Amino acid sequence: MNWTAVKSIYLFEMSRFFRTIAQSFLAPVISTSLYFVVFGAAIGSRIQEVEGVSYGAFIVPGLIMLTVITQSISNASFGIYFPKFIGTFFELLSAPISFLEIVMGYVGAAATKALIIGFIILATAFFFVEFSIQHPLAMIAFLLLTTISFALFGFIIGIWAGSFEQLQIIPLLIVTPLVFLGGSFYSISMLPPIWQTISMFNPVVYLISGFRWAFFGTADVPILTSLLAIGLFTSLCLACLLYTSPSP
User: Fold this and answer.
1) Cα separation values, 81 from 22, 115, 142, 154, Å
2) Cα distance between residue 8 and residue 185, in whole Å
3) 20 to 30 Å CA-CA from 221: which of 88, 89, 122, 199?
4) pLDDT tens-digit map of 176-232
5) Are 49 and 55 in contact (CB under 8 A)?
6) 130: pLDDT confidence band, cut at 50, 70 and 90?
7) Which residues have a Cβ under 8 Å from the Cβ of 104 and sit 6 or more positions away?
8) What is the pTM of this model?
9) Cα(121)–Cα(191) distance, rounded to whole angstroms?
10) Element (H, E) at 117
Protein backbone atom coordinates (compact mmCIF):
# COMPACT_ATOMS: atom_id res chain seq x y z
CA MET A 1 0.00 0.00 0.00
CA ASN A 2 1.43 3.36 -1.11
CA TRP A 3 0.43 5.46 1.89
CA THR A 4 2.42 8.44 0.58
CA ALA A 5 0.19 8.58 -2.49
CA VAL A 6 -2.97 8.28 -0.40
CA LYS A 7 -1.76 11.04 1.91
CA SER A 8 -0.86 13.30 -1.03
CA ILE A 9 -4.31 12.98 -2.62
CA TYR A 10 -5.98 13.42 0.75
CA LEU A 11 -4.02 16.57 1.67
CA PHE A 12 -4.52 18.07 -1.79
CA GLU A 13 -8.29 17.64 -1.56
CA MET A 14 -8.37 18.99 1.99
CA SER A 15 -6.34 22.06 1.00
CA ARG A 16 -8.91 22.81 -1.72
CA PHE A 17 -11.59 22.56 0.95
CA PHE A 18 -9.91 25.07 3.27
CA ARG A 19 -9.25 27.52 0.44
CA THR A 20 -13.00 28.14 0.14
CA ILE A 21 -13.77 29.05 3.74
CA ALA A 22 -16.94 31.00 2.97
CA GLN A 23 -18.46 28.22 0.89
CA SER A 24 -17.23 25.42 3.14
CA PHE A 25 -18.12 26.82 6.56
CA LEU A 26 -20.40 29.86 6.34
CA ALA A 27 -22.88 28.34 3.88
CA PRO A 28 -23.80 25.36 6.11
CA VAL A 29 -24.14 27.61 9.15
CA ILE A 30 -26.40 30.06 7.33
CA SER A 31 -28.55 27.33 5.76
CA THR A 32 -28.88 25.54 9.10
CA SER A 33 -29.91 28.79 10.79
CA LEU A 34 -32.57 29.33 8.14
CA TYR A 35 -33.89 25.80 8.64
CA PHE A 36 -34.23 26.44 12.36
CA VAL A 37 -36.02 29.74 11.72
CA VAL A 38 -38.45 28.20 9.22
CA PHE A 39 -39.01 24.75 10.72
CA GLY A 40 -38.02 25.23 14.34
CA ALA A 41 -39.81 28.53 14.91
CA ALA A 42 -42.69 28.55 12.42
CA ILE A 43 -43.65 24.86 12.43
CA GLY A 44 -42.34 24.26 15.94
CA SER A 45 -44.86 26.72 17.31
CA ARG A 46 -47.61 24.38 16.06
CA ILE A 47 -45.89 21.06 16.79
CA GLN A 48 -44.69 21.22 20.38
CA GLU A 49 -43.28 17.71 20.74
CA VAL A 50 -42.56 14.63 18.67
CA GLU A 51 -42.13 11.37 20.59
CA GLY A 52 -41.48 13.31 23.79
CA VAL A 53 -38.82 15.55 22.24
CA SER A 54 -39.30 19.24 21.45
CA TYR A 55 -39.71 19.76 17.72
CA GLY A 56 -36.73 22.11 17.50
CA ALA A 57 -34.46 19.45 18.98
CA PHE A 58 -36.15 16.65 17.03
CA ILE A 59 -35.09 18.07 13.64
CA VAL A 60 -31.41 18.43 14.61
CA PRO A 61 -30.38 14.89 13.55
CA GLY A 62 -32.33 15.25 10.31
CA LEU A 63 -30.65 18.57 9.51
CA ILE A 64 -27.22 17.09 10.13
CA MET A 65 -27.93 14.03 7.99
CA LEU A 66 -29.41 16.17 5.21
CA THR A 67 -26.24 18.25 4.94
CA VAL A 68 -23.78 15.42 5.58
CA ILE A 69 -25.27 13.19 2.89
CA THR A 70 -25.38 15.91 0.24
CA GLN A 71 -21.89 17.19 1.13
CA SER A 72 -20.38 13.69 1.06
CA ILE A 73 -21.77 13.07 -2.41
CA SER A 74 -20.88 16.48 -3.85
CA ASN A 75 -17.34 16.55 -2.42
CA ALA A 76 -16.46 13.06 -3.68
CA SER A 77 -18.13 13.40 -7.08
CA PHE A 78 -16.64 16.82 -7.82
CA GLY A 79 -13.25 15.78 -6.46
CA ILE A 80 -12.86 12.98 -8.99
CA TYR A 81 -14.80 14.56 -11.87
CA PHE A 82 -12.88 17.85 -12.00
CA PRO A 83 -9.51 16.18 -12.76
CA LYS A 84 -11.31 14.28 -15.54
CA PHE A 85 -12.75 17.55 -16.86
CA ILE A 86 -9.43 19.42 -17.02
CA GLY A 87 -7.39 16.38 -18.09
CA THR A 88 -5.09 16.06 -15.07
CA PHE A 89 -6.60 12.70 -14.16
CA PHE A 90 -4.41 11.04 -16.78
CA GLU A 91 -1.35 12.12 -14.81
CA LEU A 92 -2.81 10.35 -11.79
CA LEU A 93 -3.45 7.21 -13.82
CA SER A 94 0.12 7.19 -15.13
CA ALA A 95 1.57 7.43 -11.61
CA PRO A 96 2.48 4.27 -9.66
CA ILE A 97 -0.80 4.39 -7.72
CA SER A 98 -3.41 1.67 -7.53
CA PHE A 99 -7.13 2.25 -7.98
CA LEU A 100 -7.69 1.42 -4.31
CA GLU A 101 -5.24 4.13 -3.21
CA ILE A 102 -6.97 6.69 -5.44
CA VAL A 103 -10.34 5.77 -3.92
CA MET A 104 -8.96 5.95 -0.38
CA GLY A 105 -7.49 9.40 -0.96
CA TYR A 106 -10.54 11.00 -2.57
CA VAL A 107 -13.19 9.24 -0.49
CA GLY A 108 -11.25 9.84 2.74
CA ALA A 109 -11.01 13.56 2.02
CA ALA A 110 -14.69 13.83 1.02
CA ALA A 111 -15.80 11.98 4.16
CA THR A 112 -13.58 14.19 6.35
CA LYS A 113 -15.03 17.36 4.82
CA ALA A 114 -18.60 16.16 5.40
CA LEU A 115 -17.71 15.09 8.95
CA ILE A 116 -16.32 18.55 9.75
CA ILE A 117 -19.44 20.22 8.37
CA GLY A 118 -21.60 17.82 10.37
CA PHE A 119 -19.93 18.86 13.62
CA ILE A 120 -20.20 22.54 12.63
CA ILE A 121 -23.96 22.12 12.18
CA LEU A 122 -24.16 20.28 15.50
CA ALA A 123 -22.39 23.17 17.22
CA THR A 124 -24.66 25.68 15.46
CA ALA A 125 -27.76 23.81 16.65
CA PHE A 126 -26.80 24.39 20.30
CA PHE A 127 -27.36 28.12 19.75
CA PHE A 128 -31.00 27.51 18.78
CA VAL A 129 -32.28 24.62 20.88
CA GLU A 130 -31.39 22.66 23.97
CA PHE A 131 -30.76 18.95 23.58
CA SER A 132 -28.45 16.21 24.78
CA ILE A 133 -26.87 13.23 23.06
CA GLN A 134 -27.69 10.00 24.86
CA HIS A 135 -25.27 7.83 22.88
CA PRO A 136 -22.36 10.02 21.70
CA LEU A 137 -20.21 7.11 20.50
CA ALA A 138 -23.10 5.73 18.45
CA MET A 139 -23.72 9.20 17.04
CA ILE A 140 -20.10 9.49 15.89
CA ALA A 141 -20.18 5.96 14.47
CA PHE A 142 -23.36 6.63 12.47
CA LEU A 143 -21.97 9.92 11.23
CA LEU A 144 -18.71 8.28 10.17
CA LEU A 145 -20.42 5.38 8.41
CA THR A 146 -22.78 7.75 6.60
CA THR A 147 -20.01 10.04 5.36
CA ILE A 148 -17.90 7.13 4.11
CA SER A 149 -20.77 5.31 2.40
CA PHE A 150 -22.15 8.36 0.61
CA ALA A 151 -18.64 9.56 -0.29
CA LEU A 152 -18.19 6.18 -2.01
CA PHE A 153 -21.52 6.74 -3.76
CA GLY A 154 -20.42 10.22 -4.83
CA PHE A 155 -17.14 8.82 -6.15
CA ILE A 156 -19.14 6.40 -8.31
CA ILE A 157 -21.23 9.31 -9.64
CA GLY A 158 -18.05 11.28 -10.42
CA ILE A 159 -16.63 8.37 -12.41
CA TRP A 160 -19.89 7.84 -14.27
CA ALA A 161 -20.69 11.50 -15.02
CA GLY A 162 -19.74 12.86 -18.42
CA SER A 163 -20.84 16.44 -17.77
CA PHE A 164 -21.62 18.81 -14.92
CA GLU A 165 -25.32 18.24 -15.57
CA GLN A 166 -24.95 14.48 -15.03
CA LEU A 167 -22.89 15.24 -11.92
CA GLN A 168 -25.89 16.98 -10.36
CA ILE A 169 -28.84 14.98 -11.64
CA ILE A 170 -28.69 12.08 -9.15
CA PRO A 171 -28.09 14.21 -6.01
CA LEU A 172 -30.78 16.73 -6.96
CA LEU A 173 -33.48 14.48 -8.40
CA ILE A 174 -33.01 11.32 -6.33
CA VAL A 175 -30.93 11.73 -3.17
CA THR A 176 -32.27 15.07 -1.91
CA PRO A 177 -35.98 14.06 -2.24
CA LEU A 178 -35.21 10.76 -0.49
CA VAL A 179 -33.60 12.64 2.41
CA PHE A 180 -36.51 15.06 2.75
CA LEU A 181 -38.99 12.16 2.61
CA GLY A 182 -36.89 10.03 4.93
CA GLY A 183 -38.08 11.59 8.17
CA SER A 184 -35.64 14.50 8.39
CA PHE A 185 -38.31 16.84 9.75
CA TYR A 186 -40.95 14.42 11.01
CA SER A 187 -41.41 10.97 12.47
CA ILE A 188 -42.56 8.17 10.19
CA SER A 189 -45.10 7.24 12.88
CA MET A 190 -46.92 10.52 12.17
CA LEU A 191 -47.85 9.32 8.68
CA PRO A 192 -50.94 7.28 7.71
CA PRO A 193 -50.31 3.49 7.70
CA ILE A 194 -50.04 3.26 3.91
CA TRP A 195 -47.37 5.97 3.78
CA GLN A 196 -45.50 4.37 6.66
CA THR A 197 -45.26 1.20 4.61
CA ILE A 198 -44.11 3.12 1.53
CA SER A 199 -41.51 5.00 3.58
CA MET A 200 -39.91 1.72 4.62
CA PHE A 201 -38.68 1.35 1.02
CA ASN A 202 -36.71 4.59 1.40
CA PRO A 203 -33.17 3.60 2.50
CA VAL A 204 -32.54 7.03 4.03
CA VAL A 205 -35.26 6.35 6.62
CA TYR A 206 -33.01 3.78 8.29
CA LEU A 207 -30.03 6.14 8.40
CA ILE A 208 -31.93 9.05 9.91
CA SER A 209 -33.78 6.78 12.34
CA GLY A 210 -30.55 5.27 13.66
CA PHE A 211 -28.88 8.64 13.91
CA ARG A 212 -31.86 10.09 15.80
CA TRP A 213 -31.74 7.13 18.18
CA ALA A 214 -28.18 8.12 19.11
CA PHE A 215 -29.53 11.53 20.18
CA PHE A 216 -32.82 10.76 21.91
CA GLY A 217 -33.06 6.99 22.29
CA THR A 218 -36.13 6.81 20.03
CA ALA A 219 -36.25 5.41 16.50
CA ASP A 220 -38.77 4.62 13.76
CA VAL A 221 -37.02 1.32 12.99
CA PRO A 222 -34.88 -0.98 15.18
CA ILE A 223 -31.30 0.17 15.60
CA LEU A 224 -29.90 -3.13 14.30
CA THR A 225 -31.94 -2.73 11.13
CA SER A 226 -30.42 0.72 10.63
CA LEU A 227 -26.92 -0.69 11.04
CA LEU A 228 -27.65 -3.48 8.57
CA ALA A 229 -29.03 -0.97 6.07
CA ILE A 230 -25.99 1.30 6.12
CA GLY A 231 -23.68 -1.73 6.06
CA LEU A 232 -25.50 -3.09 3.00
CA PHE A 233 -25.34 0.27 1.22
CA THR A 234 -21.60 0.59 1.90
CA SER A 235 -21.02 -2.97 0.66
CA LEU A 236 -22.95 -2.26 -2.55
CA CYS A 237 -20.88 0.87 -3.21
CA LEU A 238 -17.63 -1.03 -2.62
CA ALA A 239 -18.78 -3.86 -4.87
CA CYS A 240 -19.66 -1.37 -7.60
CA LEU A 241 -16.23 0.27 -7.35
CA LEU A 242 -14.47 -3.08 -7.47
CA TYR A 243 -16.51 -4.06 -10.54
CA THR A 244 -15.64 -0.83 -12.39
CA SER A 245 -12.00 -0.72 -11.29
CA PRO A 246 -9.48 -1.03 -14.12
CA SER A 247 -7.58 -4.28 -14.46
CA PRO A 248 -3.98 -4.21 -13.19
Assistant:
1) 22, 21, 27, 10
2) 39
3) 122
4) 888 888 888 888 888 888 988 888 888 889 988 889 999 988 888 888 888 898 888
5) yes
6) confident
7) 6, 9, 10
8) 0.87
9) 27
10) helix 99-125
